[in-house]
Amino acid sequence: MTPPYRHPRTNPLGDIDVTYAAVMRRVLEQRGLPAGPLFDRFDLNSGQLAIPQARISIPRFMRLGHAACELADDSTLGLAMGQATRLTDVGMAGLAGLAAPTLGSALATLIHFERLTSYNSRGKSRMDTGPTSAAAVFYSISPYNAYNYFVVDAVLARWLTFIRMLEPSAAPVREVHIEYRDRGVCEVFERFFGCPVLFGSASNALILDPAAMSAPNPLGQPALFKTLHDSCARELEKLKSGWTLVDRVKEELAPRLRGGSPGIDAIAAAIGTTPWTLRRALAEQGKTFRQLLGETRQALALEYIGATRLSFAEIAYLLGFASPAPFHRAVRRWTGLSAGQYRRDVQSSSASSHSSSSASSH
């Protein structure tokens, strides 16, 4: 049986708190669908979904979500997942947000501490605010397919649901922007969000009304907010306390690989140092920036090949290779196998392990 992941760096592509899977299961059960057998197929029984701070890998969650959409015969299941989110599902960051002084600061708190419940090597969500504009932005997870549409849908729906938990009458969203192209669901989405939904946009985002975001939070409680916000900050610090400089560099490298190779200047700035200081510090640990770039690419590449259905051309682009050819050469250098053979071997091994696990549990 494959246990939920516990350590936030277990899977190179990322991982997510099992609470998200629990919400998915609840939605299926509310529809009278047999969620139990589906979750058993993914080695996620009720006991595992109740383990505090347990996580599962992003690829495993996406495969589960795809299977759930098929079971429900509903390509917009992600919206239902977001809408089904309860106060007890939002984690410590959400509880801190519930006590924030304004609706905007409540959502910003939830997003700022996103890492407490999920990590994706592709990027981080953010809150953009200005005098006349505001946006809650979910990072790109393109290329899009049936395995990750629901993730975008669920995240944006969850954010809107969170705001409405605080102020049910709020109409804070002016527009919804979604990167992937319309799958014939625009009418459903506009009815759900209550505003125009623009598919094929440059980002995934809720475009918010600044006036609505600056409105007082009816549940705001300053003292409790400070206590919970500080607690989240400590948890986040604890999460990163065991990280070495190498870990921090790889953390910043991963989301910057798409379409090219990030330079040391950008990474040094991201971790608050200078390129010269970073080179010297890495040398003291027997590492070079080039080595870490290669190690990061290798770990992500092998996980993408073995755990996803992305094409090799898509993986090559996501990891900054100039073309598929150098990507294929790199895979052969790392594994001694072609990318296709490596994928077949990993997936065959995974299928055999799952069959053995299923047999032993019956």
Automatic annotation (TrEMBL):
Q: Per its UniProt record, what Gene3D superfamilies does this chain match?
A: Homeodomain-like
Output the SUPFAM superfamilies linked to this UniProt entry: Homeodomain-like
HTH araC/xylS-type domain ranges (all copies) = 247-345
- Tell me which UniProt keywords the record has, alphabetically: DNA-binding, Transcription, Transcription regulation
Any one of the GO CC terms: cytosol
Entry keyword annotation includes DNA-binding: yes
Note the superkingdom of the native organism.
Answer: Bacteria
Which Gene Ontology MF annotations are present?
A: DNA-binding transcription factor activity; transcription cis-regulatory region binding
Which PANTHER family does the record match to this protein? HTH-TYPE TRANSCRIPTIONAL REGULATOR GADX (PTHR47894), HTH-TYPE TRANSCRIPTIONAL REGULATOR VQSM (PTHR47894:SF1)
- What is the name listed in the Swiss-Prot or TrEMBL entry for this protein? AraC family transcriptional regulator
